[in-house]
Design brief:
The protein is mainly beta and 397 residues long. It is built from three helices and 30 strands.
Amino acid sequence: MGVHFGISILFVVCLLGLSANAKDFTITAPPGSDITSLLLKTFNEACQFPTKSSVLIPKGEYKLRQIEMMGPCKAPIRITLQGTVKADGNVNGNDFWVAFRRINGFKLNGGGVFDGEGNAAWRANNCHKMALTQCKKLPISIRFDFVTDAKIRGITSMDSKNFHINVLGARNMTLEEITIIAPEESPNTDGIHVGRSVGVQIINSNIKTGDDCISIGDGTRDLLVERVTCGPGHGISIGSLGLYVKEEDVTGIRVVNCTLINTDNGVRIKTWPSAACSTTASGIHFENIILKNVTNPILIDQEYCPWNRCNKNKPSTIKLVDISFKHIRGTSGNKDAVKLLCSKGFPCKNVEIGDIDIKYTGADGPATFQCSNVSPMLMGTQVPKACSSPVTKLPGQ
């Protein structure tokens, strides 16, 4: 009995010792002040602390200029944003506003707001007039570059000048209860863009923006998107793929239990014709999707060429393999509710369509199912009825 008591006391003392070694830092500044230098100094101090640390940005509104918080850190670190940080409204040519880089064991939470002050930048956006590589550089609001074992929870990004959130080179990262807000007409304001990352989860989030709610770039593997509400916006998209020379394969993408409301697109895959590379996107599954007045509910577009800046006569060299659309229901604002437009150079393979129930809200007839360069496998019921190109039915139908 005495031995057990002694062990318990030792265990409690050890826990208290570990807790005492954790370090909490607080940004102390008057509301309305510029906290850039103070936040960077505090983050660097916390990052070098030998055990877990946290940095609190309390309630209030603060100015924040461009800032890069760079690891590696000596121990896991958490930033708790309870207030609102506001960018300036200038269009200054930077490619990011807030960046978290090369941090292992990172957390960002607190219910606070990143306000990108994007209105002036949207007016300056000229990407629709020239090649993407030449258009005016606008800052992404929040970058997570090469961050591992991370959890981002309960933050809001509003009115970004460019993408709201960009995830690059992440490993084992969860974004949960994220709120994204920007006007429907704000250009290039993708909600969350993920590229060259493994094991990312985006769950329980609400995205209203002027471009893709979620866009999935090259090199993404093992991504889960679940219980996300999107709209307005351009839907949930794989791609665009094929614009750049050294792109990597995409594989293992699951988009499940999501709702899209008044979006230009629903769930789609988009690749460029005359692509600059030859890669494969495979193992992509969309399931249990609810649509409410979505213009293009289900779309594979291998002739993606915004503003006609490419050669559509040269078919896309991006291979699409093992794709499924299952249990998708709701209403379409476009008669062509399902469009599978695959590459004539590399037709889509192993595309499965199951239990689709999409009704067209217009008066000029029922919804239609259009496809080219693909023979989809069909299971369950299809409304609209499947395209007339050759199809392969699954056993038992």
